[in-house]
Amino acid sequence: MIHEEELYDLAELFKVFGDSTRIRILYTLMDNEMCVNDIAVSLNMTQSAISHQLRILKQNKLVKASRDGKSILYSLADDHVRTIIDQGREHLEE
Amino acid sequence: MIHEEELYDLAELFKVFGDSTRIRILYTLMDNEMCVNDIAVSLNMTQSAISHQLRILKQNKLVKASRDGKSILYSLADDHVRTIIDQGREHLEE
DNA sequence: TTAACAAATGAACATATATTCATATGAATA
DNA sequence: TATTCATATGAATATATGTTCATTTGTTAA
Question: Which residue of A has its CA nearest to B12?
């Protein structure tokens, strides 16, 4: 049984996955952790745009950050990210 | 390996789940199939708003429709809907 | 065949949100 | 400690999208 409030939280969570920039960031981080600027270069977007989206991903506990010298390395927070993406892919494959 | 285009499709799919009205509709349909008006009453929304959202859900193959007398019954298209929602819930539970 | 009714549609509006641009922040290292 | 550099932030703008309202569509049942 799901409560009304939980459904809103669920929608919020999926909304985070429902943006191409964010999901490309998540995909980029699937292989290895990366710093903000490298992600920006990799996705051919500005540092600012990536930083804004990383904040949302971090708020929703989909990525985590750790400092490495001057840079901050981002990586996937846990395996749910992969699982949720995989389920989505399975749905699309039909 | 995921292609760029597939990532856009994934974002589109999750965008569908990322709206509270749509996810409430999906949740409502988890128990049993329902007609448009009953969904509207159940969620305390207009028939039009529900119909608009059902169209998006149908386009993305998350629900399917079948006629029953004057009404049209909607139901979940397949088990991926449940699985994706369940994965989202698991993430939230932490 | 036609009246009635449920659902679908389209335009308009309001709101949410992604990106840009300029700038601030803050930790590292010289 | 001062400077440098990567990242974060805030305001502004443009765009996307959800709901409403009025109306149309299309099927059922009389």
Answer: A18
- Calculate how close chain B gets to A84, using CA atoms only, in Å: 6
B80 to A90: CB separation less than 8 angstroms, yes or no? yes
Assess whether pLDDT exceeds 80 at residue A76: yes
8-state DSSP, A19: S
Q: What is the DSSP string of A56-90?
A: HHHHTTSEEEEEETTEEEEEE-SHHHHHHHHHHHH
- Mean pLDDT on B32-60: 97
Best of B17, B44, B59, B61 to disrupt the A interface (most A CBs within 10 Å) is B17
Distance between CA atoms of A80 and B92, rounded to whole angstroms?
10
pLDDT in tens, B75-84: 999 999 999 9
A11-to-A21, A65, B35, B44 alpha-carbon distances in Å: 18, 24, 23, 18
pLDDT value for A3:
84
Please give the pLDDT value at position B47. 98
Task: Choose the CATH number for A4-93 among 1.10.1280.10, 3.10.350.10, 3.40.50.10260, 1.10.10.10.
Answer: 1.10.10.10
pTM of the model: 0.93
pLDDT of residue A16: 98
Q: Where are the domains of chain B?
A: 4-93
